[in-house]
Amino acid sequence: MNSHNAALLPPPPLPPSPPPPSASWLLDARREIDAKAKPPGSLGLLEDWAVKISNIQQTLQPHITAARLLIFAGDHGITISNPSVSAYPREVTLPIFTDIAKGTGASAILSRGNSCELNIIDVGMDTPETEAQGPSSAASGAPHLTVTHAKVRRNSRDMTLGPALSPEERKAAEEVGADAVRRYIAGHALYHHHHKTLDESTTATTHSRLAVCIGELGIGNTTAAAALVAALTGEPAASVTGRGTGLGFEGMCLKVKVIEKALTVNSKLIQSHDPSQILEAVGGLELAAMVGAYLEAGRHRMPILVDGFVSGAAALVALHRHPPLATFLFWTHQSDEKGAAVLLQAAATKTREAGEPVYPPPLKMNLRLGEGTGALLALPLLRSACAIMREMVTMTSVVKSGSSSSCSSSSERDGNPRL
What we know:
It is a single chain. This protein is of the alpha/beta class. About 50% of the residues lie in helices and about 10% in strands. The protein contains 17 helices and seven strands. It has helices spanning about 25-35, 45-55, 80, 95-100, 105-115, 135-140, 165-195, 220-235, 235-240, 250-265, 265-270, 275-280, 285-300, 310-320, 340-355, 375-390, 395-415, and strands spanning about 1-5, 65-75, 115-125, 145-150, 210-215, 305, 330. The protein has a seven-stranded parallel sheet with strand order 1-4-3-2-5-6-7, with helices on both faces. Helix 2 packs across helix 16, helix 7 packs across helix 13 (about 285-300) and helix 8 (about 220-235) packs antiparallel against helix 12 (about 275-280).
């Protein structure tokens, strides 16, 4: 495990961005997958993902060369004034961060198991930076894992008293997210350059072969995410507020009241319908960082795996900011959070408005941990979709091969082997 301070290690120069997409690729990819040796549609959503990744990469030979999970960690001011919005105290954020940094947290284990790099980033934990240090790679057994210190401030503000973030803080957190994506791209470009494994003329197309999973960590962030979804959709707080870390009935009622108060106090910003101002009003530092990561990954035409409710709330903000981002988003699972259905419906609406096909998330496993775990579990599905499109033969070739074999066998039986 490597640890660094983002401010001290500027990334190497980026390779050029890929060319814009061609509208014909969706049709070409659909024709190709339908022609495979199977009844059309018999692989269900896997076929849709194969078409989507082919469109992103502009090829009928799609491939994922690397994957990285970005986890953004931050604390929330709302948990100081209203600690009961979570079943766990806010002090838990740091030990979980450290557990992941050691390679023993759920997301670290699933990352290793799915051949996925992991970069965990402190963008706003309420701790001195030195407390968030991780062990060496030898101690953790996790050489695929890096820790980045890029704290904008120590936790967001209490959103029941006013905006959670200032415009400057929101922009700074978004830049942390964007920088994490740029480092990922630049690191792989540097690796290929040193090992001479890539023709420089094709460098621009390699961005889309780098999959990125977006996750988060922070006690209280389902409260902020529910407030965001309510503000963006107009749904009442009670319709989008879930159990989070495991609240009981009384805790849920309090959580709803807290969100309602935050929406009322920040009503002027929310009624502007400006997604950036809504993010400042009721968001958080890790949510803003995820927005920045989504937008930057989309700019480089990277396949992006959206995790659960909190990660999805940030994706919805990013979609409101830039609807064409829908092309690159793979919604991986329907979270067990109450507001997940509302969130996915809102995302589907923005996707249709962008002229993109809408595909439901493939997994429904009652997940509500966050940390990018759902995205990691769906990563093998994306790789499988690529393999099916790239390697599966067509029905025509199978029939032709069978016909040739039949003719060959007939000729041999007649004593006239085909030459």
